[in-house]
Specification:
Helices cover 38% and strands 20% of the residues. It has 17 helices and 22 strands. The chain is globular. Helix 4 packs antiparallel against helix 5. Its EC number is 1.2.1.3.
Length: 490
Amino acid sequence: MTDTLVNLASPEKLFIGGDWSSSSGTDGIDIISPSTEEAVGRVAKATTADMDRAVAAARDAFDNGSWPRLSGPERAAVLRRIAEEMAKRSDDFARAWSLQVGMPFAQSSATAPYMGGYFTYYADMIEKGFEEVRTPMMGGHAIVVREPVGVVVAVVPWNAPLATLALKVAPALAAGCTVIAKPSPETPLEALILAECIAAAGVPDGVFSVLTADRDVSDYLIRKPEVDKVSFTGSTAAGLHIASVVSARGGRITTELGGKSAAIVLDDADIAKVVEGIMPNLVGLCGQQCAAFSRILVPHTLKGAVTDALAAAMQYVRIGDPFAETTDMGPLVTRDQHGRVFGYIEKGKAEGAKVVTGGSRPAHLDKGWYVEPTLFTDATNSMTIAREEIFGPVGTIIPYGSEEEAIAIANDSNYGLSGGVFTQDVERAYAVARRIRTGNFGHNGRVIDYTIPYGGFKQSGVGREGGIEGLHGFTEVKAIFMKELPAHLR
């Protein structure tokens, strides 16, 4: 059962106001293994009444509690204790990811020990405080301060539940906010484990809560006027809806949404580096990555070589049980996602693209939501598989003539989250990077680093997470004009 597999003390309870309590409803959420299609656990299903309780607790903790009023060093000490508690639970975090999503355990267990780093990073940052003295044009002093935005709702997706949650919770707590975490119903375990870590670290009651709930009642939470900010990672359709709701009531919003990122292979590219740079983010997490290099733009002169190299690499990917040591790629997360990916594969064929490799369920796996890594060629940028986010291990090779044409194709998208250029010329790489309308861009690969701002242009979201920009996103700016400075700033 779930509580054995991930060592949870109260798997069927909600964490609200510092206490583990039962839902006011009687339903629960079953956790389904994507590799076996069987239920492996169950968690509570929050109701609107539970959401009211969580918001009231967070509001009281922010308005009347100690957390927002602690100094930067005082909050930093607590964040470091959270990181220490998370380190003790690395195995639980890794197992939860593999159990719920199908991430190979060899990969999840290598990643989990670093997740506490989000909290230590922001702990170090807030040691410096949030006050800056400036000189106004009319004389005197202006103290520009950053103050916590207030009650934050953090809505996270199922593909990388702990990383996306930590990227919100760590800076929000560092800023002095109170936080209500709303994990995806497919992957609730990481948020519950994190709640145990936060409680063990001595975070005051009401500062952090977890609501495991279906999507149908989550809309109620984002509409609450007592919620000052919503930070959302997920689909573009859901993000645009959330942004419209929250903005309409004057709330703050950060969204990290979908992508259809282009890998631009220039005519001098090293083919081995192309394969090395594209494969991990095309088949890692079974392709369920918003920043995947799903459009592969290749000059006509290299089309055959790049196609052959990527197809060969895909055929070597070992697909199977996430907990088997030899597995490179696990299943898709749900039955619906499985059907969705195969629907796009069929759409690609119908519109004239050619499947070079993959496109089917692995022959040796008759159970679980598995799909072969799939590569299309002879595609155009107007095809559905080049326009819409598939969220599966499907790459589309699009040939081009000139470098100008490649840049135009890359920018011809509703999205602008990530991308990369493959070339041996640093100057060409930087010149291309500056012309692509996307929030993150790599040279001969993709890098995502929580100490660097991450986010998108266009329909890929609003705002940034990570780096100092991620911390600032959970603050409001205030200018205080003074004839004389207070003693601690002189």
